[in-house]
Design goal:
The complex is a heterodimer. By secondary structure, chain A is an all-alpha fold. Chain A has helices at residues 2-26, 31-43, 47-57, 64-76, 80-87, 97-110, 114-124, 133-143, 151-157, 160-174, 181-187, 193-197, 201-223, 227-273. In chain A, α7 (114-124) runs antiparallel to α8. Chain A is elongated, with a radius of gyration of 33 Å. Chain B folds into three domains: 25-113, Serine Threonine Protein Phosphatase 5, Tetratricopeptide repeat (Alpha Horseshoe), CATH 1.25.40; 115-180; 183-271. In chain B, α3 (62-75) packs antiparallel against α4 (79-92) and α12 packs antiparallel against α13. The interface between A and B is medium-sized, with 31 and 24 residues.
Chain lengths: 285, 280
């Protein structure tokens, strides 16, 4: 009898224990559980779901951490408009103010709003925590079409490690290795040389061979009194010759666009490697 | 004696109900996800299943949630993600039936995401595994679909006929098999008689033009050599005749590939819109 009572007590007690445990975990939509889940989504890079989860949590737990993480999730998901609107709501007293402002600068940079980035930076320039933003502003200047500041400004802002690459970018912007249409056209007077100038070596050799062969054919046919074939090959040689001049001139803008494209890609990947010179909270560490 | 049995039953019932209380919220969550899936709200369904996975410390719903997430991604045409989740389901599957379901889902998604080579490799492996012997007919059915995706109509047709599978699939693969062109055959025909490959693929105008250009250029080349104009002969031969001759060969091959692509599209449009049987 005593044993039975003891057993019943144990079972009921365990029911109580389990049910207490289940009360804690049954409500998956309880705020703390939702935060844990949202953090999990954020760290597993499911940013869209994380952002939505944080936004749904916010009315129940109005903390800057939740708001900041929601904005960060939208930013990671490349929804710059929503992200900016949330970041711009942080007050100066907030612990996340500096990070929020830094992320706003990042959004300006990603949206290629370089003048806005510079003017907004002027506001926070003298405040502490914004020292690295100057690097982002200067990087924006490398990508923008306007005039570059003195090299010393770059030298003073970037560290030795970064300066190696930055000086290459600076040199490129100072004297970009672009090709001239006039030079290409003039060089093309010698068949194929214009193509070699724009680094299309295969096309250059082909243009030279085709023009010379057709000219030789025209000459031999005229010499053999085959005037029709002579004129036919003369026409073809002229077409190849004109085509090679036109092709060389037309290849110049393509060549120039390509080197600017490669330059922009290198600058952007350099900035990305350096995390846009922003401090990282390390939520997922 | 009876009292003892009743007591034991009571204790057992109490313990069981205790366990089920703990599991019920997970079941509720799974039911919620299931209803979202049935209502075609796949994005929300994935969110709720991920929530379930996160809180399911016992991993009791690991297989079913991974499978359903895979299904949702598949419905949203996110095939790579679908395969990832089916693979996770395959890893946690506890019995051969679940393993089979996960594996065949991966195969079906691979057929959909145009990875028939991978699908075939997986099917061959399943074919050799004695654990999947009861599903041999199903495996063969998907092998047929894989061959169809590869454009191997004859192999698909043989598979469907040998296992007495769907008649509609037998008929469509038989039709495709008969209408298929062989690019190598088209190429070889054009090597021996310029324009013959184009005739084989039904492009008669192109065939006549190809033949005419080759005859004309050949005549000019031979004529030049006969008149001792070796340079003329070499230039016309290289710049014109060789260009038309090689163009005729590659043209014949391109026509055959083009026609086969057209046939492939016709078959898969039919399968997508009209075929009522099981699809990937």
């Amino acid at each position: 009898m005593r044993f039975n009572l003891f057993l019943l007590f144990i079972i009921l007690f365990s029911v109580e224990l389990f049910s207490q445990d289940s009360v804690k975990t049954v409500n998956l939509l309880e705020v703390n559980n939702r935060i844990k889940f949202a953090d999990y989504l954020f760290c597993s890079k499911d940013y869209l779901r994380a952002a939505e989860e944080y936004l749904q949590i916010y009315p129940y737990k109005k903390t800057d951490t939740i708001k900041y993480k929601a904005a960060l999730s939208y930013l990671k998901n490349e929804d710059y408009v929503t992200s900016y609107s949330i970041f711009s709501n942080f007050r100066e007293k907030s612990l996340f103010y500096i990070q929020a402002r830094q992320n706003m600068f990042k959004i300006f940079f990603l949206n290629k709003q370089y003048p806005l980035l510079e003017s907004e930076y002027e506001v926070d320039k003298k405040k502490s925590g914004f020292e690295n933003v100057q690097k982002l502003v200067l990087s924006g200047k490398l990508l923008a079409a306007d005039k570059l500041p003195e090299y010393d400004v770059y030298k003073n802002s970037f560290g030795d490690k970064e300066l190696e690459k930055v000086s290459c970018f600076y040199k490129f912007r100072q004297s970009p290795p672009v090709k001239s249409k006039l030079t290409a056209g003039l060089l093309s007077l010698f068949p194929g040389l214009g193509k070699v100038y724009v680094e299309q070596y295969g096309d250059g050799i082909t243009a030279f061979l085709a023009t010379s062969a057709l000219t030789a054919l025209a000459v031999t046919n005229f010499n053999a009194n085959h005037s029709f074939r002579g004129w036919l090959f003369s026409g073809l040689a002229a077409a190849f010759y004109g085509g090679s001049i036109y092709g060389s001139v037309a290849a110049v803008p393509i060549y120039n666009a390509k080197i600017y494209f490669d330059f922009n890609k290198s600058v952007n990947s350099f900035i990305e490697e350096n995390n846009y010179f922003l401090s990282d909270y390390g939520f997922c560490k | 004696m009876y009292k003892g049995i009743i007591k034991t039953a009571c204790y057992f019932f109490l313990l069981l109900s205790n366990y089920s209380v703990c599991q019920s919220y997970l079941q509720d969550q799974f039911d919620l996800a299931d209803s979202l899936y049935k209502n075609e709200k796949y994005f929300d369904c994935i969110t709720e299943l991920k929530r379930l996975k996160y809180f399911d410390s016992t991993k009791a719903f690991s297989y079913s949630s991974n499978m359903m997430i895979g299904d949702c991604y598949k419905k949203g045409a996110k095939y790579n993600e679908a395969v990832n989740y089916y693979t996770m389901a395959d890893i946690v599957a506890s019995n051969s039936s679940d393993v089979y379901k996960a594996k065949i889902s991966i195969v079906r998604t691979n057929i959909l995401r145009d990875q028939p080579g991978m699908a075939l490799m997986q099917l061959e492996r399943m074919d050799r595994d004695p654990a999947f012997t009861p599903h041999l007919k199903d495996i063969t059915y998907w092998k047929g679909w894989t061959f169809m995706r590869m454009g191997e109509w004859q192999k698909a047709n043989i598979v469907f006929i040998n296992y007495k599978l769907d008649t509609a699939l037998i008929n469509i693969t038989a039709m495709a098999k008969d209408k298929k062109y062989f690019p190598v055959k088209a190429k070889l025909l054009s090597v021996f008689i310029p324009g013959a490959g184009q005739f084989y693929t039904g492009n008669y105008v192109s065939g006549v033009l190809s033949l005419a250009w080759n005859v004309l250029c050949g005549y000019y080349t031979i004529n030049a050599f006969n008149s001792s104009r070796v340079f003329d002969g070499l230039v016309i031969g290289n710049l014109l005749w060789l260009r038309f001759y090689s163009g005729n060969i590659s043209n014949a091959e391109e026509y055959a590939i083009e026609k086969n692509n057209l046939l492939y599209n016709i078959v898969f449009t039919y399968l997508e819109q009209e075929y009522t049987g099981l699809k990937p």
